[in-house]
Amino acid sequence: ISGRSMNLESNRRIFLSTTFGDIEIVRKNNDGTSATPQMSLAGDSMESSLAEMEATIAEGSAVYIESDHANIRVVGIDEDVVRVRGTRMLRVETGRDPRPVAESLTVRLEPTQGGLRLIAAAKEPVQDRGCTFYRFDLQVECPRTSPLILKQGSGVATVQGLGEDISIEQTEGRITLEACKGTITVKLARGEAQILESAGPLTIVVDAGNVSTRKVYGAQTITCGQGKTIVESPGNGLTVRQRGGDVRILPLDGILGDMDIKAEGGGISILIPESADATLQATARNGLVRTAFPLTGEIGRDYQRLQGRPRPETDGKFRVLLETIGGDIVID
Question: Rounded CA gap, 257 and 234, in Å?
Fold first, then answer.
């Protein structure tokens, strides 16, 4: 719990800690008598630790996580247990007691069909108790061999080191996955999704926000709106559908699969390595195609369509299809 005195000009800090004991802070009048208890000004906040939870889980069983507002970090471990630790943070209107709200914010770890379920949510509408904000901060350890299904409202979801399939559905916030080996499915209404150094295959849908991936070795299917998509070093086939934003493709390790990239209301830029064994086809409607390679094709009144191979001596093993509506295509 943190707060400050009425003297806003004071820069003095006081830290109190206890183990297996209570801390009581009492306000005194100038004459030494106790003042009437009163909550702090500017809205009262509270942060409290949650009791650590642990449960065994059968090998290969799924872990389900459900939350409304949380920052959740999931880390894979080499044990058949699920451990949960963390804190809850809340803020209430000035003069309201935060403790009843804290009691309503619960975390449960319970068996369910096919695995374990972790639920972090309010038991009842806390707005009726004057709560203006709350959030869980959770760290979850689970077996690498467990599939993960995570659903939450707003917050940050971070997953690292899992070896089975992952499915994340979130309304708002940020999603980051790193060093994961299974099939990845992500659906985010608003925010940013980042997938790093993972096996895939990957399917990701962001209705409004940004997507970035780096070194995803399986096939990728990305749908993104009202933002931008950046794909670096894709290790297999790539499909991108972008609305209202730009797409940038950086195949630094070469063209390793077919690509089908379309952007509406935005442009496409792609870096083609000189070693690429690929056939390019670029179509820009109400836009231009700018290319560092000699391509042939046709130019109409409101479109340009060009095609060719960066290295004419190759067979053009992979197809790279680029198409924009209302945007330019840049091929370097």
Answer: 8
